[in-house]
Amino acid sequence: MNEKLEKNLKEKKDKHIEDESANNSTLEKNKKLEEENQVEKNAENNESIHEQEENKEEKINALKEELDISNDKLLRALAENENTRKQMDKIRMESNKYGVQPLAREILNVVDNFDRALNSKSDCNENALEEGVILIQKEVLSILEKFNVKKINALGEDFDANIHQAMFEKESKEYKPGQVCEIVQEGYSFHDRLLRPALVGISKENVEEKEEKNEEDKDIENNSK
Questions:
Q1: pTM for this predicted structure
Q2: Which is it for strands 188-190 and 193-196: parallel, antiparallel or unpaired?
Q3: Count of domains in the chain?
């Protein structure tokens, strides 16, 4: 019986050893698998990090390239603006310097006509000379109107301090009180601006007419009574 018990104990012991050995082997396999999985994960992580770094570097390079392009466009735009400004300044200076050239050319024609009139005054009578001067005056006014210099029509108009300058008042039967009855010096406008005001005389109420009117009013009032 002791032999049988010893045999059972030995079998149990051997089985325990085998189980323990199997467990150790399994643990070693699992540990090895875990180590292999960890190595693979580390490799994948390293590869992912490497890809991220490459993508980041590509993005940085792309941004640098875009920045360089933007800077180049900005510099070109600034250069073009500077050139445009210089051209506009040049045009403005030339316009200020030579802007009156067309008017000067027209005025030369008037000067030529004056020269002709003066050279031929000994051969002309007073009427012919006067007609020549009148024609020259019309030519000058036509030239001024061509350049938008226009005479202000003041005679018979109501006095307007914006375009008229009153020089005196006088009684007038032809014009109403407050109207321009005489032109001392013509006024002119340039486009929509006043070039110079017209110097004018202003009509005021006639004393005799005022007295006659008062008498008539009194007569009407007396008759009505």
A1: 0.54
A2: antiparallel
A3: 3
